[in-house]
Amino acid sequence: MKSTERRVSIALLGTAAAVALSACSALEPDKIDYKSSGRGVSLEVPPDLSQLPDQSRYAVSGGTVTASGYQAGQAASQTVGTPTAANQIADVHFMRQDGERWLRVDRAPDKLWGPVRDFWLESGFLMAVDQANMGLMETDWAENRAKIPQDVIRRTIGKVFDSLYSTGERDKFRTRLELNANGGTDIFITHRGMEEVYSSARKDSTVWQPRARDPELEAEFMRRLMVKLGVSQEQANAAKAAAASGQATAPQTARVTSTGSGAAAIQLNEAFDRAWRRVGLALDRTGFTVEDRDRSKGIYFVRYIDPTLEKKEPGFFGKLMGRTSQQLPTSKYQIAVRTEGNGSQVTVLDSNGAPAPAADAQRIVKVLADELK
User: Is residue 187 a contact partner of residue 103, using CB atoms and an 8 Å limit?
Assistant: First the structure.
């Protein structure tokens, strides 16, 4: 149990500290060294919550930037809302629009699947979802071991008792490859995080709970993926810096409304192309499982798990008998994105394409609207 591991580690560290005074070395903020949680041991891997809490919000911001403008120290004068390549080397573009960042590569998705998959494996992850026909891959939960201070005690005891050290955090990343209108591929990377917290005042047990996503971690892995796809370290650094510069907060463009029949909906003040991309990112970030998508019809086919339900783990004897954790019931829906006037409207349909039950539609609309804001 995680709480036991922590108590043992504290005791060992305390004993060692009495013998040798330790000086913790500061961890560089950009250092990343992920280690997979393995084959999904229930006590190590956080529960696969399909829904992050409502506080997962990301402010949409406007403005554009180009690498040439960044390197020359000149402001880019582009139309607000037009996606701009912050850099283009080896047919790879670091894109930014309204605070969202993604990669655009002038290659077909089937040519990129292998290299992108290898990239995550080389980064220390295992693949939990690997669906080339869907253009979707997702890592398992992994820990950034670089966050553990590398002091004298850690280097000595950690060689023997490495499992005693834990950051109390786990991360997973979802990567979506989507064919764009020019025949190339747009690559989206989204992060989900969990943290281990004490579940009682006595601090004798812990639970895993969602933590806020890290957009800078997403951007860093995009930068590293650029290098994997043929861009130099210096050029990738410049592209990431260019995409991060000059971002300003834009007014919220998502509001909850209703259709003519009274069904819950989201109104977006943007054209279909931008709305389609933003809804896809919102689905990725909030943990919906996208089983299929049809851009020509503006529909995402998703599975949804009610976050108010609790996943139950088997007891000791249940695990001894080989029982697995009780899976939460899931429901299938269609998330429809349609042009509405000068903007777009997002609605929730059931698996057959009919309006979803009102309670389900309202709950899903609220989750997506919070993320789209």
Answer: yes
Q: Token match 């410049």: residue?
A: 238
Q: Is the dihedral angle over the CA atoms 365, 370, 371, 373 positive or is it negative?
A: positive
Is the distance from CB of 283 to CB of 174 less than 8 angstroms? no
Task: Give which of 228, 49, 236, 195 is closest to 121, Cα–Cα.
Answer: 228
What is the H or E stretch that residue 90 is in? none
Neighbouring residues of 54: CB distance < 8 A, sequence distance ≥ 6: 366, 367, 370
Two structure tokens written together for 186: 């747009």
Q: Report the length, in residues, of the chain.
A: 373
Residues 205, 43 contacting (CB under 8 angstroms)? no
Residues paired with residue 97 on neighbouring β-strands, in sequence order: 100
Contacts of 29 (CB under 8 A, 6+ apart): none
Supply angle C-alpha 264, 265, 267, rounded to 5: 150
CB 182 within 8 A of CB 208: no
pLDDT at 93 > cutoff 90: yes
Burial class (CB in 10 A: 0-12, 13-18, 19+), 97: buried
Concatenated DSSP letters for 185-233? EEEEEEEEEEEEEESSTT---EEEEEE---HHHHHHHHHHHHHHTT--H
pLDDT, tens digit (0-9, with 9 covering 90-100), for 292-335: 899 999 999 998 865 544 444 444 444 444 444 444 446 899 99
> What is the mean pLDDT of the segment spanning 79-107?
77
Nearest to 43 by CA among 13, 3, 90: 3
Distances (CA, A) of 224 to 46, 62, 139, 147, 168: 26, 24, 16, 19, 25
- What value, to the nearest 5°, has the Cα angle with vertex 361 and ends 209 and 128? 40
Report the distance separating Cα 176 and Cα 178, nearest Å: 6
For 33-84, the pLDDT digits (tens) are 787 766 443 333 343 433 333 333 222 333 333 333 334 333 333 344 566 6
**Separation of alpha carbons 76 and 108, rounded Å:** 29
Other CB atoms within a 10 A radius of the CB of residue 119 amount to 18
